[in-house]
From TrEMBL:
DNA repair listed as a keyword: no
Species this protein is from: Rhodopirellula maiorica SM1
Name recorded for this polypeptide: N-acetylgalactosamine 6-sulfate sulfatase (GALNS)
Entry GO MF terms: arylsulfatase activity
Keywords from the UniProt entry: Hydrolase
Amino acid sequence: MLIVSDDQGYNDLGILNSDILTPSLDRLAREGTRLTNFYVTWPACTPSRASLLTGRYPQRNGVYDMIRNEAPDYGHRYSAAEYAVSFERVGGMDEREVIIPSVLKSAGYRSGIFGKWDLGTLKRYLPTSRGFDDFYGFTNTGIDYYTHERYGVPSMVRNLSPTHEDKGVYCTDLFQREALRFIDQHATRDPFFLYVPFNAPHNSSALEPEIRSSVQAPEKYKQMYPLVEPETRVNQRYRYGNPATVATPAARQRDYRAAVTCMDAAIGKMLDALEQRQILDDTIVIFFSDNGGSGGADNTPLRGHKAQTWEGGIRVPCIVRWPAGGVKPGVVNDEFLSSLELLPSLAAATGAKLPKNVVIDGFNWWPTLRGEVASAREEMFWKRRDWIGARVGKWKWVKMDNAGGLFDLEADIAEQHDLSAVRPEILTMVKERYANWLSEMESADPRGPFRDF
């Protein structure tokens, strides 16, 4: 069972931060291993999700930027006809890419996804066209939690068909419902892969500034946190139209935390369902965030946030539970690991066959999680348009417009002390490794939707 949250901060677990309530994730950490040096491949949604499913860098699988429209950022509401021919509607992950459920199918697994897809909205790109057997969720980067619309455009789909059946119901509750249904159908009959990519705690993708400027959460969960007063303020220089009533920073943080707690409750029900069927300890449970936190998130002690190549944009919380596989409870593992490791590791655990003639950028992490060997990962690279991140061993080079530098992550996880002038030979080495990686990515078999071929 793979659970992915959306924009959750590095420090936003109750076991680390008493200001946020996550009893189910805290349970996972107590009963499993928490990874503190775990990375995703891109500092925002779409490319990160393509990589975790393919085991390939975004630049190799072709999804190295967001599949979205920019116009709503400026308050534009699409008509149905206009949206139908926009890039967010027609773009998608290259059909040649092989993802986790297709790999696991060779070992007899049934696969379901309930939540955020974000890898194409046309039928040929949808999950059930890519190896999943069951899908209920939304197809683009974000929605209103209750209307299930993205900036006014209905976005919920069941398998290959758009649906309005649950409009008005909080979507975390819907993804919980569908996940529990899938567990009930398959847990005692079939080997299964359950992927639950929540949209919580991502900001609402609504056009209304008061909704859009925060995260929607049920009142029950808001009331678990201290009262906020005032809830809103008037922003005279709001980017989507002036003036505008928006959530205060305090309200945004409260709403964010409430959405995380609601998601945590759903996770708890899934764990309970597996436990009631006496298969929890035999089930691999993996949790992490798709990228660094933003808005009301806490990325302490990391620098930066979502969309950036600082650690706060790409190093995320991750927990793995699998007692039957030798993953020990209550362990904190600081080995250098990433979401690229998921596909080869799940293949190794299930006996599934990796795709032939496909370069996989990850490796089997189970010996490392069992404490038997050090991680095989020695380097990793990130490219978001002209922003760069490159890690080789303990050294990290960051280049973002006029910001960046060389940092020793073992001594300076917060990336506060630029060592470029002190260790120029290290900076040269890291830049050379990045140039080698970039050359490899550019020479790889071209994949859409962005490459020119």
